[in-house]
Amino acid sequence: MRKTLILVLGGAFAATMASAATLEEMDANADGMVTFDELLVVMPDVTEEAFTLADANQDGMIDAGEFSTAQDSGILPAS
């Protein structure tokens, strides 16, 4: 049981780190935000509609919190 829990928690941590690394990779100008054009480089199948849904504050960019929420809710694919 203990080994299983460690493996599950380790996998969840690795998935979180992979998402953060992907967001950083998408952020071409390193401003902490991802535009639709930046997102398309890494996730070419994402639609403008999905991007707009992910952009909770409607500022035209996705920050780390919006990205994580969008992945958790299935709006954006998990990386």
Question: In a nutshell, what does this entry contain?
Answer:
This protein has 79 residues and is mainly alpha-helical. Helix content is 61%, strand content 0%.
Tell me about this structure:
There is one protein chain. The protein has 79 residues and is mainly α. It has a single domain (2-72), classed as EF-hand (Recoverin, domain 1), CATH 1.10.238.10. Helices cover 61% and strands 0% of the residues. The longest helix is centred in the N-terminal third of the chain and has 25 residues, at 2-26. The relative contact order is 0.15. The model is unreliable at 4-20 (pLDDT under 50).
Which features characterize this protein?
79 residues, mainly alpha, Recoverin, domain 1, globular
Order of helices and strands: HHHH
Total number of domains? 1
What helical percentage do the residues reach?
Answer: 55-70%
Number of strands: 0
Average pLDDT level: 80
Which SSEs are present, and which pair or pack?
Blueprint (H helix, E strand, L loop, with lengths): L1 H25 L9 H7 L5 H7 L9 H9 L7
